[in-house]
């Protein structure tokens, strides 16, 4: 003989029936090529929190360290490094908010920002460390004495963290080389205009290299930077494919395994 339900059980069943059932894996749904769950309150949130902590420490260093840039026109935003750091911070802020709220909308905003911030940070790291190897005084005035950890935090950590986010916590980028070149050119030449505006107010350039170069060679530098940023986008997409596989309609590299297929 079946036992009768109590009024409380009937009420609970009635309330439960008013809400759609959420699949157990609903929050873990991700793009087939995305390696790890994100947004997520697990590993994803830890990585994004660590990134934000590093970025915040870098900004704190700027404020705590006495230097003439603090009182100049444009503040530290005269430096491409700080512009990139700011964009990285905004990107990871949306990533962390998406992790906390599990919001797909915030996650999509983070992914859109990443298309700009990740290649820019890779460009900044390549330019800074490459030029520094040739002549440190071209990227750093004589009065600058930067702590090694702070130097690493400004010029390496953002590129590393954004690359990790792309490879393990993001869907693949869909941007192609031509639009990427357009975006890179706009960023490069907008920065050049901004640098000249700051120079008109301050009487000096943020990077000593700009003092050495003639206007023609500055044009060459910024054009080369746009090309390098575009190449960074293409290379990051290629690394993503090698790490996570290939999407529908993409040609795999001979000898490699395509996602969901056997050896070619």
- Total count of helical runs of at least 4 residues: 9
Q: So what's the overall shape?
A: globular
By helix and strand content, what is the structural category? Answer: mainly alpha
Overall radius of gyration: 24 Å
**Termini Cα gap:** 62 Å
Any descriptors?
264 residues; mainly alpha; 0% strand
Describe this structure in words.
There is one protein chain. With 264 residues, the protein is mainly α. The protein is built from nine helices and no strands. Helix 2 runs antiparallel to helix 3, helix 4 crosses helix 6 and helix 6 runs parallel beside helix 9. The longest helix has 31 residues. The radius of gyration is 24 Å and the shape is globular. The relative contact order is 0.12. The C terminus is likely disordered.
């Amino acid at each position: 003989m079946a036992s009768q339900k109590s009024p409380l059980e009937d009420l609970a069943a009635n309330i439960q029936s008013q809400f759609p059932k959420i699949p157990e894996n609903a929050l873990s749904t991700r793009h087939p090529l995305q390696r790890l769950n994100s947004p997520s309150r697990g590993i994803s949130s830890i990585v994004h929190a660590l990134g934000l902590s590093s970025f915040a420490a870098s900004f704190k260093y700027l404020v705590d360290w006495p230097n003439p840039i603090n009182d100049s026109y444009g503040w530290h935003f005269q430096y491409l490094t700080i512009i990139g750091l700011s964009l990285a911070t905004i990107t990871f802020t949306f990533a962390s908010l998406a992790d906390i709220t599990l919001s797909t909308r915030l996650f999509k905003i983070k992914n859109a920002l990443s298309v700009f911030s990740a290649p820019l940070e890779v460009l900044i790291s390549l330019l800074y460390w490459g030029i520094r190897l040739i002549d440190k005084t071209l990227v750093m005035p004589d009065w600058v004495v930067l702590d090694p950890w702070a130097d690493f935090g400004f010029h390496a950590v953002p590129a590393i963290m954004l690359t990790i986010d792309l490879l393990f916590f993001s869907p693949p980028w869909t941007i192609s080389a031509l639009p990427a070149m357009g975006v890179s050119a706009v960023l490069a030449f907008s920065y050049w205009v901004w640098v000249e505006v700051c120079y008109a107010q301050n009487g000096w350039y943020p990077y000593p290299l700009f003092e050495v170069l003639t206007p023609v060679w500055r044009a060459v530098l910024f054009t080369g930077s746009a090309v390098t940023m575009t190449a960074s986008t293409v290379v990051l997409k290629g690394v993503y494919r090698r790490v996570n596989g290939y999407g529908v309609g993409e040609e795999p590299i001979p000898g490699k395994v395509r996602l969901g297929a056997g050896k070619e």
